[in-house]
Design goal:
This protein is an alpha+beta fold. The protein has a domain of 94 residues: TATA-Binding Protein. Helix content is 52%, strand content 32%. Strands 1, 2, 3, 4, 5 and 6 form a 6-stranded antiparallel beta sheet that branches. Helix 2 packs across helix 3.
Length: 135
């Protein structure tokens, strides 16, 4: 009986160690994802929100919801019998600095491609330039 109890405790310890490692790897992946899903602009929040909305429309998205108080924009793009939904979080860091984070998914699958987010931010960079220049 004691031998069985000892083996059970050892087994639980090994299982616990494995899940901790997976949690750490998962956390590192989340941090890495956040780095390519986010960008900071030295512009006021309202200007960035306008540019973000314009960018999404230029990319073929339909704006579903904008909540400037919460700093969120949700939009959907319909293509080839699937839909891509993107949620943008816009956070004011100061009067002249704003953080933007994009999170996209196709159906229920998250978009994990850094290139997809880089493409979005390249378009957003141009839209912010146009907003600041009044174009």
């Amino acid at each position: 009986m004691k031998k069985f109890l000892f083996l059970a405790v050892i087994g639980v310890l090994f299982i616990g160690c494995g899940s901790s490692k997976n949690a750490i790897v998962g956390d590192l992946q989340s941090v890495e994802q956040r780095t390519y899903q986010s960008k900071t602009y030295e512009q006021p929040k309202l200007l960035v929100a306008r540019a973000t909305s314009a960018t999404l429309q230029d990319l073929g998205f339909v704006i579903d919801r904008i909540n400037l108080d919460a700093g969120t924009i949700t939009a959907t793009k319909y293509q080839d019998k699937s839909q891509m939904q993107i949620t943008i979080t816009i956070r004011e860091l100061s009067k002249t600095s704003t953080s933007v984070r994009a999170n996209a998914r196709i159906g229920i699958q998250s978009v994990d491609s850094p290139e997809a987010y880089q493409s979005f931010f390249t378009h957003l960079d141009k839209a912010i330039f146009f907003e600041t220049e009044g174009i």
